[in-house]
TrEMBL record:
The active site is at 9 (nucleophile), 15. The lineage of its organism: Bacteria, Bacillati, Actinomycetota, Actinomycetes, Micrococcales. The keyword Hydrolase applies. It comes from the Bacteria. It comes from Agromyces bracchium. Belongs to the low molecular weight phosphotyrosine protein phosphatase family. One of its GO terms (molecular function) is protein tyrosine phosphatase activity. This is Low molecular weight phosphatase family protein.
Length: 199
């Protein structure tokens, strides 16, 4: 079964495509994962600004030039197994669109913050013995991570859950945005790869 990750920001030209592309690149060795992105107020059809394209490519993405922005809709959310907003406003917009998506929707940095604390016991407790997917299916990562909400100590500041929006800002802000996305992607990939290795 294909595991689908959806990243979401506002215009779908900077933060969410960068997260999408880095996830795809770093999950390259994991089969049956699809990563896509969308925007809550997407600049439909637009590509990434040069600064975002160059940063994404520098960090390992191979498909930044091909990106075209698209508008978030209910179908995308319903079909996703994990939705990663790039800021709290995007997480909120996703849940307002599809309230049932609450347990699978996080900000990227929130997911990484929780995923870093997932133990083997958390994973074992999250396996549904009646599910169609085999034990160790990637959905277990989402269930285990969601179970740590309210258990793991929160961020020192709520703003730490967000990735800064670099659009029309300085090169330094683009760098800051990338520095927030990259480590969060790495933690997310580590958890998914840990489960994928057991399949």
């Amino acid at each position: 079964m294909t595991f689908r990750i959806l990243t979401v920001c506002s215009g779908n030209i900077c933060r969410s495509p960068m997260a999408e592309q880095l996830l795809r690149a770093r999950l390259g060795g994991v089969d049956d994962i699809e990563v896509s992105s969308a925007g809550t107020i997407a600049m439909v059809g637009d590509g990434m600004p040069a600064e975002a394209r160059e940063l994404s490519a520098r960090l390992g993405a191979a498909d930044a030039d091909a990106h075209r922005a698209r508008q978030l809709d209910e179908r995308m959310v319903r079909e996703a197994d994990l939705v990663l907003g790039l800021a709290r406003e995007h997480r909120r917009a996703v849940v307002e669109l599809v309230p049932a998506a609450t347990r699978k929707t996080f900000t990227l940095r929130e997911f990484a913050h929780l995923a870093a604390e997932v133990t083997e016991a958390d994973l074992a407790a999250s396996v549904d013995p009646f599910a169609d997917a085999p034990p160790g299916g990637l959905g277990v990562a989402v269930t285990a991570t969601a179970s740590l909400r309210g258990v793991v100590a929160p961020f020192e500041s709520p703003d730490d859950a967000d990735v800064v929006d670099p659009y029309r800002r300085s090169a330094a802000v683009y760098e800051q945005s990338a520095q927030q996305i990259g480590p969060a992607v790495d933690v997310t990939v580590a958890l998914l790869a840990r489960l994928a290795a057991r399949r």
